Amino acid sequence: MRNGGLTAPAELEALERFDQSLEEQPSAARLQGLRQEMTHPESLSVFVAWHQERPVSKAWIRYYPNRTFADLWGGGTLPEYRRRGVYGALVSVRAAEARQCGVQYLTVDALPTSQPILERIGFERLTTTTPYTLEPR
């Protein structure tokens, strides 16, 4: 049984407020997808780190039935809260939850700025990815 940070799809509004705090355009499609995934709590846990009543960092973990790995996604921290261990704490809490669920391996597709943090925690870089987007015609 996972504890997961957020337990109700309505709580994802915190992620929308977080994206606005980062001056990023909230992704309605991403939030809708996460809301849908949260109806199957065995496949997703969403975490938000708070300072007082303000979301300052976010992250989630996806689980797959009958697989020995899970994926870490969505990690992001407000600039004024970086270098305080918040991102690392969210990685650690997701890793601990994954261990409790019997997951043997974690994958993360992270920005280069996250690499030193992940390596300090014990992750090993296996490869790199090149992101692409397909524009609608």
Can you walk through the features of this model?
The chain has 4 helices and 4 strands, in the order ααβββαβα. The protein is an alpha+beta fold. It has a 4-stranded mixed β-sheet, sandwiched between helices. The radius of gyration is 15 Å and the shape is globular. The mean pLDDT is 82.
Keywords:
about 25% strand; single chain; alpha+beta; Aminopeptidase; 4-stranded mixed sheet; about 140 residues
Compact summary:
The protein contains 4 helices and 4 strands. It has 137 residues and is an alpha+beta fold.
Question: Could you give the topology of this structure?
Answer:
Elements: H1 13-21, H2 28-37, E1 44-51, E2 54-63, E3 69-77, H3 86-100, E4 105-108, H4 115-121
Radius of gyration: 15 Å
Q: Could you name the CATH class?
A: Alpha Beta
Q: CATH superfamily assignment? A: Gcn5-related N-acetyltransferase (GNAT)
The largest sheet is: 4 strands, mixed
Strand order of the largest sheet: 1-2-3-4
Return the string of H and E elements.
HHEEEHEH
Mean pLDDT: 82
CATH topology: Aminopeptidase
Class inferred from helices and paired strands: alpha+beta
- List the domain count as a whole number: 1
